[in-house]
Design goal:
This protein has nine helices and twelve strands. The protein is α/β, with parallel strands linked by helices and 303 residues long. The strands form three sheets. Strands 7, 8, 9, 10, 11 and 12 form a six-stranded mixed β-sheet that branches. A hairpin with a 4-residue loop joins strand 8 and strand 9 (167-176). The longest helix has 17 residues, at 207-223. It starts with 9 loop residues before the first helix and ends in a 14-residue tail after the last strand. The relative contact order is 0.14.
């Protein structure tokens, strides 16, 4: 049975902080404000433009990571073509094709750039615009293979927001304006509505686990050197959440974030009926802004 869980151990936090103090690869990653560190169940992922550049866990006292080889390809290194003779490729020294030093974050980004689609890159810009975002690519298992399985459902991001009683964790599904899932013919609901309804059922089922997990995540994020700088204006509130000093509610009403359009598209007759259907199905929960950078309304802790 799937159980939603987020958080890393105090020992893991201490080990990461010791590595940060040494300088080098982890300091380069943790201090880069273009990256997002997401806490998982006993491990973490480092994201850039929707790509997980690094999966990192603790094996005893050893930091053990995994990087997809495509993010290690030298973006300006070896020639892209391999010579062929008599039907046989003459492959050069493979080591020359890859960069081994994870502290060269700009090179990792250049290698990952071809794999960052417009929608994923837009979601990443929204996340970086809101320092109250706690998590991205939030997977819920709906099958026997767990969060990494093909049946897992993934909500784009979650943020904490203050309430009159304390705070709440709010979840967001983000779509680029051109995404066909925002539209449906006739009276049928757009596919994204069914997607969001499914997420809400999962949140209701795992409400207690989600609340507990994000209290732990708050504590992890503000304890990690370098990473906590991203949350400079929210660290006191996050510490209070981590220590159960304030109530925390899981808001099951998932918001829809739509971005990537100009004023003509926003006001055009073709989009109007689709927007009206979305707003009817998700009253008060459809958030729109043409440019993803600076998209804070309905997401930030102050909006």
């Amino acid at each position: 049975m799937f159980v939603f869980n987020r958080g890393i151990s105090q020992h893991f936090v201490q080990r990461l902080n010791a590595e940060y103090e040494r300088g080098g690869w982890w300091r380069a990653l943790a201090s880069d404000r273009d990256l997002f560190v997401a806490i998982r169940d006993g491990y973490l992922n480092v994201y850039w433009n929707g790509n997980s550049l690094l999966k990192l866990s603790l094996d005893g006292d050893r930091l053990a990571g995994e990087v997809h080889y495509k993010y290690l390809l030298r973006p300006d290194g070896a020639k892209p073509y391999v010579p062929v003779e008599n039907g046989m490729a003459h492959i050069p020294d493979v080591a020359n094709l890859f960069q081994a030093d994870l502290s060269d974050v700009p090179a990792l980004k250049r290698a990952a750039a071809p794999f960052a689609g417009d929608e994923k890159a837009g979601v990443h810009r929204i996340v970086l615009s809101n320092p109250n975002v706690l998590d991205v690519e939030i997977a819920f298992s709906v099958g026997p293979t767990g969060e990494d399985g093909p049946l897992a459902r993934r909500i784009d991001f979650a943020a904490w927001r203050p309430t009159s009683q304390g705070a709440e964790v709010v979840f967001y599904e983000a779509k680029q304006f051109s995404n066909a899932e925002l539209r449906a013919s006739g009276d049928a609901p757009a596919p994204v509505v069914g997607q969001i309804n499914g997420y809400q059922e999962l949140l209701a089922r795992h409400r207690t686990e989600v609340e507990r997990s994000y209290r732990t995540v708050c504590g992890n994020l503000v304890a990690l050197l370098g990473v906590h700088d991203r949350y400079a204006g929210a660290q006191d509130q996050m510490r209070q959440l981590a220590t159960n000093d304030v109530p925390l509610k899981v808001d099951e009403a998932v918001r829809l974030v739509v971005f990537g359009f100009d004023s003509d598209q926003r006001d055009g007759a073709a989009w109007k009926p689709h927007r009206e259907k979305l707003e009817k199905a998700l009253p008060g929960r459809v958030l729109l802004k043409g440019e993803p950078k600076g998209f804070t309304k309905g997401i930030s802790a102050n909006s």
